[in-house]
Automatic annotation (TrEMBL):
Heterotetramer of two alpha and two beta chains arranged as a dimer of alpha/beta heterodimers. It comes from Tanacetum coccineum. Its EC number is 3.4.19.5. InterPro entries: Ntn_hydrolases_N, Peptidase_T2. Residues 1-16 form the signal peptide. The keyword Signal applies. The keyword Signal applies. Keywords: Autocatalytic cleavage, Signal. It comes from the Eukaryota. SUPFAM superfamilies: N-terminal nucleophile aminohydrolases (Ntn hydrolases). This is beta-aspartyl-peptidase.
Length: 350
């Protein structure tokens, strides 16, 4: 659950806010007011851990606390009542990435992602094979990732005829299935009207909100300015089993390059991953765009095609200047740098 504001030392309320730190590094930035996660990352980087290991510490804290019910085990259930994990870690110095998607039975998503990066030449492992790999590399499991809260949430959803859900172009439309495709739907055919496509977008985005689409996305700069980013999420509530969101997709949920800066994102991952917004942000900053404009540009590209999506991101350049942009909701991100006495929370309005 997100912490009460009384724990927050300073809250900035901004529109297109941009901040430059006087003493830049180390620097920790995270989506949302996940204060304990930022404190863990800050403590780790100041204790001499690498930026990669510090990100793991920060994201792991959110997994344990089940931040907002959408990070870590025991959160968002899928259609079958299971909770699964998506996570990513990226080293901005080497561009190495480790990720896991739709991972069952293992609660430590970000640690599993780091194992993929350290002990394989792959970028991502998914499903039960990701679980088996993580356990073989020493993580605890197999574990039941459900909780009393997630099962209660799933039971109520079933009682509500499994609405809303992520199905489209299927029959029956208002029950728990089993589902069959509508025979008259043919993607790309002229009979698939623009109005129908727009209607499906509206339906898809209407049940995306704070409580089923939060992701922790964290960036940490060490004292030398080396960057790592990481993400962790248990994904969208009542997702179709097997769904992998943008959390483990490098360039979508997060991206880092020591030569430029970093980005982290949260929101409707099924839409956002089609645009790789964090890659777009970093490349825009590489071309000289300030973080504020780079963030707004990446968000506006998505909104132009999907006017009902909700999403947000933060951008930070190699000089420590950071900014945020959002669409469809009010966004907050958390920051800690040497010039601060505690974690500060920046509020960005759509």
């Amino acid at each position: 659950m997100r912490l009460p504001l009384l724990f927050i030392l300073i809250v900035f309320k901004v529109r297109g806010h941009e901040v430059e730190s006087s003493s830049k590094f180390p620097l920790v930035i995270s989506t949302w007011p996940f204060l304990e996660a930022v404190i863990s990352g800050w403590t780790a980087i100041n204790a001499g851990l690498s930026s990669v290991d510090a990100v793991v510490e920060g994201c792991s804290t959110c997994e344990v606390l089940r931040c907002d019910g959408t990070v870590g085990p025991g959160g968002s259930p899928d259609e079958n009542s299971e909770s699964t994990m998506d996570a990513l870690i990226m080293n901005g110095a080497t561009m190495e990435v480790g990720a896991v998607g739709a991972m069952r039975y293992v609660k430590d998503g970000i640690k599993a992602a780091r194992l993929v990066m350290l002990y394989t030449e792959h970028t991502m492992l998914v499903g039960d094979q990701a679980s088996a790999f993580a356990i073989s590399m020493g993580l605890p499991g197999p574990s039941n990732l459900s909780s009393t809260e997630s099962m209660e949430k799933w039971t109520k959803w079933r009682e509500d005829q499994c609405q809303p859900n992520f199905r489209k172009n299927v029959l029956p439309t208002n029950s728990c299935g089993p589902y069959n495709r509508k025979e008259d739907v043919n993607v790309g055919d002229e009979t698939c009207l623009v109005e129908d496509v727009y209607g499906s977008i509206v339906m898809k985005s209407s049940h995306v909100d704070f409580y089923n689409h939060d992701t922790i996305s964290m960036a940490i700069f060490d004292k030398s300015g080396h960057i790592a980013v990481g993400t962790s999420t248990n994904g969208a509530s009542f997702k179709i089993p097997g769904r992998v969101g943008d959390g483990p997709i490098a360039g979508s949920s997060a991206y880092a390059d020591d030569e430029v800066g970093a980005c982290g994102a949260s929101g409707d991952g099924d839409i956002m991953m089609r645009f790789l917004p964090c890659y777009q942000v970093v490349e825009s900053m590489r071309l000289g765009m300030e973080p504020k404009l780079a963030a707004k540009d990446a968000i506006s590209r998505i909104a132009k095609k999907y006017p009902n999506f909700v999403g947000a991101l933060f951008a930070v350049n190699k000089n420590g200047t950071h900014a945020g942009a959002c669409y469809g909701w009010t966004f907050q991100y958390s920051v800690r740098s040497p010039g601060m006495d505690d974690v500060e929370v920046v509020t960005v309005y759509p």
